[in-house]
Amino acid sequence: MLEIEQVDFANGVKALVWASDAEPGRVTVRVRFGAGYRAFDKDSAVYASLGQSALVGSGLGELGQNEIDRLATGRKLGFNFAINDAVFTLTAQTRSEDVGDQLYLFAAKLGMPRWDKDPVIRAKAAAELAYNTYSTSPGGILNRDLEYLVTGGDPRFATPDPAALKAVTPEGFRAVWEPLLQQGPIEVLVFGEFDQAKVIEQLRLTFGALPARDPIPADVAARVPPFAATEEKPEVVTHRGDANQAAAVVAWPSGGGVASLRESRQLEILTQLFNNRLLEALRERAGASYSPQVFSNWPADLASGGRITALAQLEPEFVPVFFAEADRIAKDLAANPPTADELARVTEPLSQQIRRASTGNQFWLYNLEGATQDPQRVVLLRSLLVDYSQTSPQVMQFLADRYLAKTTPYRLAIIPEGQSLAQAPSGGAALNPAQVAPLGR
Length: 441
Known about the structure:
By secondary structure, the chain is an alpha+beta fold. The protein is built from 16 helices and eleven strands. A hairpin with a 4-residue loop joins strand 4 and strand 5. The longest helix is centred in the middle third of the chain and has 26 residues.
């Protein structure tokens, strides 16, 4: 197995350190902390998306964004901040000689954050300008609203509209984010080519010197994303773009957690089977080269909240065709096991993809993050290749029955303003545009 060292500091910070020459001169640093989207409620939700835009720019210690930029001159430093299902992350790609400075920047952001007002004001203005531009295409609506809609209108996943943004202030931003930077355990991962003893010492001087962390409140820790109420008829949202552009989404609730991680890997095989069948069906029935996407999201850091999603951007008249074919494929996968040849067309590319990716540091970092809090992730690493590349027709049928056939999916149609959603045709005929009736304004 990999020679990865775990280092535990007296203040509760834990680190995973792997010195590897797989990518000469390159180092990836990731810091996981806090509660992620769990940390927000309806009153603070507007500050979640603004945090992704303004938190890094608000500075640290005596350094504002301009000073940080000057500090980075001649160095390779990164400062990517993200909010995930159950954790916040700081990530950077750096060089062997710059690891110490990178660790200092990340630790200082947590230990002595600065609260410049200008980045918040700029982020607020940019969000106000961008909001309405999302509605000019179905892809924009997907980016803006899909997470919000599929979680049944959970405000944590809403893109703030101008009315919500109007109440945003730099003082409110600090009031929300300052306690969140002090909350929850910290895990630091350093993977790449470096002197391991020196990096451990740098960790001790930076993250190891931070004050003890506040616990995540129990009610916050228990939050999981809800799933939208499901009905036979799809939810319809309109966009202001071209009249020949639309999108369709079908989503099924699945699960989450490390305990069923092996099953979630098998779901990746199932979604690839689904994707291949949906691609063939759309090209046969719609006569066009549409490229649907079917994917699984399984939050390992949460007990539930995952889903399987199928979506495509296509012409409005083919939206009912998409729904009909997705429903037919889901039922068929549950009723009839796939052939061995069909499975091989999925598992062989997955196996090759994993073998290629496993030569890089980031692959192992991604699969091991969170292991200092849940050591089971290390154990499950041993079966990773097998789980993604070996299965049976019966297992696929079982999973399709469990996750696709036994639940009513959420359906979303994004169509142009002035049009309505037609009914799916029978047989193999495509819908005629005349079947889509215009709506009065």
